[in-house]
Amino acid sequence: MERSLTPMDRLLADAQNALDTVFGAARAERPNPAAGEPEVVLDEAGRRHAAGLMRINHVGEVCAQALYVGQAAVARDQATRRHLLEAAQEETDHLAWCADRLRELDSRPSLLNPLWYAGSYAIGALAGLRGDGWNLGFVVETERQVEAHLDEHLRDLPEADLRSRAILEVMKADEARHAANAEQAGARVLPPPIPTLMAGASALMKKVAYRV
Questions:
Q1: Topology classification of domain 7-19+53-209
Q2: What does DSSP assign to residue 77?
Q3: Euclidean distance between CA atoms 102 and 47, whole angstroms
Q4: In angstroms, rounded to a whole number, what is the distance separating the alpha carbons of residues 139 and 119?
Q5: CB 26 within 8 A of CB 20
Q6: Where are the domains of the chain?
Q7: What's the chain's average pLDDT?
Q8: How much is the pLDDT for 2?
Q9: Which pLDDT value is given to residue 77?
């Protein structure tokens, strides 16, 4: 039988999630998709470029984690909350895989991860307060935009970087499934200009996170 959590339980769980996400303690439940791919020594420009792209993807997972946890914190329906937290767990896998790859590329996550997390958590909570249909609508739009930028990164990665590519392929499949599941659960279509504003914020994040 599932234990009913008190508001304090949820607050503590959210705080622990924030610390694990921001400070690199997140652990994947699934094996890293890159494990079966050979490590190839990239030239310096290729290594730096791959690291910049994987740092963007790591930040994207920090934001997704915070967004879903923020939405779950105010979700009115238990099924919606479970849906959001299940998606957040798979995003934790993505987060850990991207962190592993950054270490392999002799690089680091974004120094601004605390700000990315705090901003995304606030957006998630505000979205959730509009109701579960809007909550799930944010999931769909977020995942569609993430799927698009993963496609862009798969085209832009150094051709020899098969390890990063393997991670992004699995992430892309997961994001598409999250969006489809949210649609089936009753997601509402977000009205303009919300998708445009989300895309603008994402573009700014990518530009900053590539370097910082």
A1: Ferritin (1.20.1260)
A2: S
A3: 10
A4: 16
A5: yes
A6: 7-19+53-209
A7: 91
A8: 47
A9: 87
